[in-house]
Write a structure and sequence with these properties.
The chain is α/β, with parallel strands linked by helices. It has two domains: 168 residues, Jelly Rolls, CATH 2.60.120; 287 residues, Rossmann fold (3-Layer(aba) Sandwich), CATH 3.40.50.720. The chain is built from ten helices and 27 strands. The strands form eight sheets. Strands 1-2-3-4-11-6-9 form a seven-stranded mixed sheet, covered by helices on one side. It has a seven-stranded parallel sheet with strand order 15-14-13-16-17-19-24, with helices on both faces. It is elongated.
Length: 476
């Protein structure tokens, strides 16, 4: 144990308040160090007992400054109240919590969701009615206020709020507030959320504490089960056809446009035009109307077309792209035309690999090797980094959501440190313990390429895993 660490089981470092209404401890030491194990212990005790738990870093209720780590259950909270002459500050550690501020007549004056994106702290002034409601099943927060604790005289409960002893009425009141103020706003809108990449990204955004509106075309996939539990109130699933009418809720700060008709055998030029070009145009218009702060567009490496070998950078000439690549290029150009009204970044993506992503050459090769099937591949000496892991992509997009954008940027994304195709296949075979027969074939007319991500790295901090690390992850 560190010199100033506190343990709930250590009588030398803290004492338990047996008179408190919830499980409460006070630190005995003037210097206190808080680590993850202490927070984990507070959470464990709260979950086991079903009660809120609290560790006060001050030594007793009469101390002039009260600092508390509180683990709070979603349905165990106080009704709106105020402190006549005490300010209070809430600082989120884990989970999400809504802080409501009320006028004297009960009208809502402000709502802050702590734990959503970068929103970490809220300070409430003395004499202001307020309430803190956990959104997730459990929330851990650090609360500071002035002492001493005055018992029943410490708080003035709002006369217009439900009675303190009627928890059912309090929960109904909270749910009414949540319905009126939480579902109307969205941090991030994700299109294509019923797809593999869009769905994975939506889950990651929720895990980071964002409020998400997830658009899908009738099939929400695994997201349907996320509307309850930890993500209750944070996810709004909307079924819509973007080509008919784009849906951007008021208050949305970021649009992530991952929806697209892919170049599969069943696709058509007409369908790609409708679902990729017309839908993108309508979404851009709706985002501008909603005063969205940033637009992140899933473009594709296929915009570069055919015949481009060697190293592909953003300045590489575009040569005869197919219908899908052309539709993505038009999306980039539409965003460039409105750069003064909505800043954007277009991500020229290679194959995305990882759990649940769309099948591609690399994932299909891995599947063949897992099944000990024969594998044929071309040009074994050609360097390859034409892939990105979904985890890297999600991490990067999270970073973009948290930073201001300007203009209409276009960047390539891919893994770093390309490796020869032959070495890639051999390594993957070894990692998987496969007995597949490998056959390499030379086809000089089918030139490979590597992707230059200098712009993404230098301008936006793109730091993905290496190609070798990606192959190792693929083999797990």
């Amino acid at each position: 144990m560190a010199k100033f660490s506190v343990s709930l089981n250590d009588a030398d470092s803290c004492w338990r308040d047996e008179n408190a209404k919830s499980s409460a401890w006070f630190a005995k030491r003037p210097n206190v160090s808080i680590d993850e194990s202490l927070i984990a212990d507070l959470k464990r005790r709260a979950i086991e007992t079903g009660e809120n738990t609290r560790l006060s870093l001050h030594s007793n209720p009469d101390h002039p400054l009260h600092e508390m780590i509180i683990v709070q259950h979603r349905d165990k909270f106080h009704p709106p109240k105020k402190h006549a002459d005490k300010d209070k500050s809430f600082n989120i550690i884990e989970g999400r919590m809504a802080v409501f501020v009320f006028a004297d007549d009960g009208a809502v004056e402000d709502v802050s969701i702590l734990g959503q994106g970068g929103n970490r702290q809220y300070r409430v002034g003395a004499g202001v009615y307020h309430a803190d409601f956990p959104i997730t099943d459990w929330v851990v927060h650090f609360e500071t206020t002035l002492g001493p604790f005055l018992g029943e005289k410490d708080s003035i409960f709002a006369p217009w709020a439900p009675a303190r002893d009627d928890m059912a009425a309090q929960i109904a009141y909270r749910d009414t507030l949540f319905g009126a103020y939480l579902s109307a706003a969205s941090d991030v809108l994700v299109t294509g959320a019923g797809g593999r990449a869009g769905g994975a990204l939506t889950e990651r955004l929720l895990a980071e504490g964002y409020l998400v509106t997830a658009l899908h075309r009738g099939n929400a996939g695994n997201l349907q089960g996320l509307t309850e539990g930890d993500h209750a109130g944070a996810l709004d699933l909307v079924s819509c056809d973007l080509a008919d009418a784009a849906h951007v809720p008021p208050g949305t700060k970021t649009v992530i446009h991952a929806a697209a008709e892919l170049p599969v055998p069943s696709s058509s030029a007409l369908g790609i035009t409708r679902n990729n070009v017309e839908a993108t145009r309508r979404l851009i218009d709706a985002a501008i109307e909603a005063n969205v702060e940033r637009f992140i567009f899933f473009s594709a490496m296929s915009i570069y077309g055919s015949g481009n070998g060697g190293v592909i950078s953003e300045s590489t000439p575009i040569t005869n792209p197919n219908a899908y690549g052309a539709s993505k290029l038009l999306g980039e150009q539409m965003l460039a035309e409105v750069a003064g009204r909505i800043p954007s970044v277009s991500l020229r993506l290679p194959a995305i690999v990882g759990a649940g992503t769309q099948p591609n050459w690399l994932s299909r090769t891995a599947e063949q090797l897992r099944n000990d099937e024969p594998v044929r591949y071309l040009n074994p000496a050609t360097p390859f980094n034409n892939a990105v892991h979904m985890d890297d992509l999600a991490e990067f997009i999270i970073s973009l959501v948290g930073q201001p954008l300007t203009g209409a940027s276009v960047i390539n994304l891919a893994a770093t440190d390309s490796i020869p195709v032959g070495e890639l296949v051999e390594t993957l075979k070894t990692e998987l313990g496969s007995s597949s027969e490998l056959t390499a074939e030379e086809k000089p007319d089918q030139t490979g390429f590597t992707i230059d991500c200098t712009q993404a790295r230098e301008r936006f901090g793109w730091t993905p895993m290496s190609m070798r690390a990606l192959v190792a992850r693929l083999a797990v």
